[in-house]
Structures are given as C-alpha cells and as structure tokens.
Amino acid sequence: MEKNDAFEIFVVTTPGLESVLCAEMKAAGFPQPKPVKGGVVTRGDWRQVWRANLMLRGATRVLARIGSFRALHLAQLDKRARKFPWADFLRPDVPVRVDASCTNSKIYHAGAAAQRIARAITEELGAPVTEDAELVVKARIDDDLCTFSIDTSGESLHKRGHKEAVNKAPMRETLASLFLRQCGYEGKEPVVDPMCGSGTFVIEAAEMAAGLHPGRARSFAFEKLAGFDAAAWHALRDHARSIVPDVRFYGSDRDAGAVKMSGENAERAGVAGWTDFRHHAISDLTPPEGPPGLVIVNPPYGGRIGDTKQLYGLYGALGKVLLTRFKGWRVGIITNEPALARVTELPFLPVSGPVLHGGIKVALYRTNPLG
Ligand SMILES: C[S@@+](CC[C@H](N)C(=O)[O-])C[C@H]1O[C@@H](n2cnc3c(N)ncnc32)[C@H](O)[C@@H]1O
Predict the structure, then answer these.
(1) What is each CA distance from 25 to 66, 97, 242, in whole angstroms?
(2) CATH code of 107's domain
(3) Which residues line the pocket of ligand 1, CB cutoff 6 A?
C-alpha cells in the first residue's frame, strides 16, 4: 500500500449510535461514511485516519484495514502472514500485540491464529510481540478471509487527554457528545447540566462551540507506525483555529467536590472562559440570562447509586423545575429506568433503542422546546 493509497477505515462507536456518528462524519467531510454494526466505514489515506482520531467526538477508536487474504488452514495463514508487507506499517523497534477472532471459518482457534501471526511479525519484521504492547494488530478471520487492521488510536478516544478528575458514574465523553448531537446540539446555543458531576456535557458542549478538536491534547498509536510523518501530523493538529463562542455553558451539582472538579476539568480543557459551574441543588436551578438552549442531564441511575424508589422524588423535582422555569428550552435526560423518565412528566419524543454505558442500559429521553 502506497503512502497516499486509500484503504478502508472502520470507526468504532457505541453500538446503537452508529447513525449519529455517521452524521458527524458526513458533516466533517469523510467520504461516503456508512453505518454498520458497531461503527462506521469510510475510505481514505493516513491523513484521513489522523483526522478521524483528531476530530471525531463520537468515535471510540479508529481502525485502519491494511490488507486481507484467504486462509483455509493454519499453515496457509502462517505462510501468507509471513509474506504480508509488515514493514510498510510496523516498526521493528515498536512492540505490538495481536488480537484475533474467527467466525464462520475453517480456522476456528483464535489463539492459534494470533500465535501464527505474532510469530510471522517477530520473525519476518523483528518487532517484539508482547501482551501489554500499546500498538495492536487485529486479525479478523471471517468466512475464511483474514483481514488485518491496525488500531490507530491506542487508548480509547473518550480519553481526551485533559480530564483528570472524575466523579461517581461519569458519562464517557464520546457518549456525551453523541447524546448532545442526538439532541440537535450543533455548538450554537447555551447548554445547562444541573447535575453536572465532573462536567462532561458542559465541557464537551463548550469545546464543540469553540471548535476545539477532542484529540488536540493526546497522543495516538499511529504516531508509532512506520513512515509516520510527524511534521505533517503536527501541521494538521495545530492548523485548527478555535473561536470564542458567543453563548455560555452552565453546570451545577449539589456536590461541592463535583463542582470544583468540573471547574478544574474545564480549566485543563481550555474552556473555563465560557463555562460557569455552581454549587446548588436542582431546587435552586434557574435558567441563565439570554436565549434558551438545551438542558442535558444524567441524574443518578436507578439500581446503581442509591435506591430507585428514592429517585422518584428527585426525578419528579427535576421535571417540575424544568416545566415551570425553562420555557423554550429543549431537554435531554439520560437514564436507565423508563419509569424514572416518566415521573418527570416532561413531554418526551419517541425514544430510540437503549445503549450500554458502563454495563448499564441507558436511553436518551428528548423533548422539543418546552411550552
Ligand atoms: C450520574 S452523576 C452525573 C455524571 C456527570 N454527567 C458526569 O459526566 O460526571 C449524577 C450527579 O447528580 C448529582 N445530584 C444528585 N442529586 C442532586 C440534586 N438534588 N441536585 C443537584 N445535583 C444532584 C450528583 O451529585 C451527581 O454528581
């Protein structure tokens, strides 16, 4: 594969939200993105891989599909893996890990397949293969076709690189950005999270409004690949121009520690100038001055923190405050219990399928502007 050749790029996301990521990719100019189970497929060269890692807020990781061949048995896999042009992608001095999976294939033992591929890489290229390597080669053997991908992200992309402090049950940044998008948020209106925890929604919304790329402050596995052009990457990363948003982003929480944490996270993210975090309970929440926008909140979930029955009062109070004080605002509530959502008495639109967050099935309940 030549440096500028296009190949398939698979962008992994939270299952159930593939179409939301697809819309984000379309808006960001990725060619013909197509939602498939667990992610979105597009095509491009290494520059597109860099862009995907740098810019896509809803992406969990970015896989570059570097080649495939048929393999009907382990000896054939061994032979073809040895002939694979590893040196085009991997460096002999950078350790790699090999993950393999087999479905509908004559080769059914994933461990044995991974071992053959690992041996081919070590013996043909010289790169050490270790269990704890940061760089991962994925081999998927499906219908006797073995496809190699490189995980170009490394650490999951929800790690933006600037959030050190997390409270209980934090929302993952990737998921928060997808929920913001599902609520129709495009970075142009104020956002309020009255149970902000470590400030994830508020900071994500502020970054989107400011045009700050989510990957601007972190490193990626692709920096360790053969032929990586550091100067071109730095030029791409540093090219983005952020703007000062003309709306503000508000978080509050009854937990003083959470409020402090949110402020520190916003500071590290470089959005403290446009965010406002206050310490108060939902009962003291009032809309900020200025135009209406979006209230987005994930209150404590039933069955995880505290008892579901005790939460009825909290959700009821949240609904009342929003219905009486937030006319003209849209609302998005993320919760795991439909009964808790119902208790708010908010006029929710039809709900799309649940998604998994930290092992819990949650759904987004959205409204139109409140009347
Ligand atoms: C699931 S966490 C939110 C996590 C947050 N989205 C994040 O990403 O870190 C729920 C939050 O609701 C807050 N909370 C619970 N009851 C509250 C109340 N009555 N008023 C304000 N905040 C409350 C808790 O302190 C907690 O931080």
Answers:
(1) 21, 29, 19
(2) 3.30.2130.30
(3) 167, 169-171, 194-198, 200-201, 253-255, 258, 281-282, 298-300, 314
